[in-house]
Amino acid sequence: MASTSTHDTLPTTFIDSAPAFQANVVPENGLELRRLLGEAFQAWLTRSPSLETRDGYTRDFFQFLEFAKVPSEAWEKLAEIRPATVAAFRDHLLGAGLTNTTISRKLSVIRSLYSFLRTYGYTGANPADTAFVAAPSVPRDGKTVALTPADCRRLIDFPSIETPEGIRDRAILAVLAFTGCRVGEISRLRIGDCRQSGGHHVLEVRGKGGKERRMPLHPEAVERLEQWLSLLTEKEPHQALFRPLRTARGRGKDGFLLASLARRGIQYLVRRYVKRLGLDPNVTVHSFRVTALTTARERGADIVDLQDFAGHADPRTTLTYIRYRDRLSRSPAYVLKY
To answer: Dihedrals φ, ψ of 195, to 5°?
Structure first.
């Protein structure tokens, strides 16, 4: 991590406020360098208040370290990473069949860490910078399958109204369909997050990065939530809104646990109903989010309102969720005749 900087040319406040990795102030002791870079890695992770985001970043970065044959906790080795290693990692992922979107995300994690290290005081180049390693192109339309309005209606109406489990699932599917919430946001909901404001029924949603937003609820979602809540005997504001079955065979007739229904539990119930209806097996929980944004856009919703609805920081992100379902119908392929 050689540098042409000198102690005299560095701002005093920088020297005093953060570990600096310039050659003249980095300890020769490799263990000390390991400690400094390890602290920087933890500081990078904890920028995000979301545990899910931290877990995802950790998984992606440690996958890269494993590929680069960097031993666990050998943080000083970060200074030895070169663009060729990052490019080889990208090519490895391409060869493994991962999608361009997934690969681009993993590269952005590496790039983000090195960018943070430079802010923290590291003076080496960012080996994952796009000037060195190009990410694979990502199509404007995402890969998540969108439901047609008719199939979405079939799906949200499929659970039985004869069992407590079915009433719970109908409420979950309605909230997914009418709010476009992420699966983690649904799992985190508390009873107190359902409230009224200015004559509207709303959900207080805690999104990615700890961001909070208030979402109005469609009357059908309100009705289903009220049916679900009427079944619960314990419904303090701090308690989980959606809960797992006490026993699988009881179908909820013997009650529900007080814990939150986990993300995997929500994913499983959607997958189960998709399979029973014979829908496209690629339909996932995330399909509801894409479907909600696409359908609202088709029916005249403004992109700025959609951005706020989705909780996106950038409208360009929102646009990647919009599926132009009529585009295939208008394809020149259908006018060709020989």
So the answer is: -150, 180
- pLDDT average, residue stretch 173-199: 91
Show the tokens assigned to 64.
Answer: 């890269």
Question: Residues 158, 71: one domain?
Answer: no
Separation CA 75–CA 33 (nearest Å)? 8
Distance CA 40, CA 115 (A): 11
Please indicate, yes or no, if residue 302 is contained in any of the structural domains.
yes
Among residues 265, 283, 91, 277, which one has the least CA distance to residue 186?
A: 265
What's the pLDDT at 211? 77
* Interatomic CA distance for residues 262 and 242, integer angstroms: 9
* Whether the predicted model's global pTM rises above the 0.85 cut: no
Residues 166 and 285 in one domain: yes
DSSP string for 253-268: TT-B-SSPPPHHHHHH
What value does the mean pLDDT take over residues 81-93? 94
Per-residue CA distances from 58 to 45, 52, 77, 87, 183 (Å):
8, 10, 17, 20, 20
Three-state DSSP at 149 gives helix
Q: What angle, rounded to 10 degrees, do the helices at 303-310 and 285-298 form?
A: 160
In a domain, 165, yes or no: yes
Residue 267 within any structural domain of the chain: yes
Domain that holds residue 314: 149-319
Question: How do the residues of the chain divide into helix, strand and coil, expressed in percent and rounded to 5?
Answer: 50, 5, 40
Q: What is the dihedral of CA 10, 12, 15, 21, to 10 degrees?
A: 0
**Three-class DSSP category at 161:** coil
Lookup: tokens for 4: 């042409």
Give the integer Cα–Cα distance in Å for 140 and 146. Answer: 15
For tokens 């696409």, what's the residue?
Answer: 294
- The answer on 94 and 166 residing in a single domain is no
Q: Are 285 and 152 in contact (CB under 8 A)?
A: no
Q: Using one digit for the tens of pLDDT, what is the confidence trace for 66-78? A: 999 998 888 888 8
Does the pLDDT value for residue 11 go beyond 60? no
Per the structure block, which two tokens stand in for 277? Answer: 């209806």
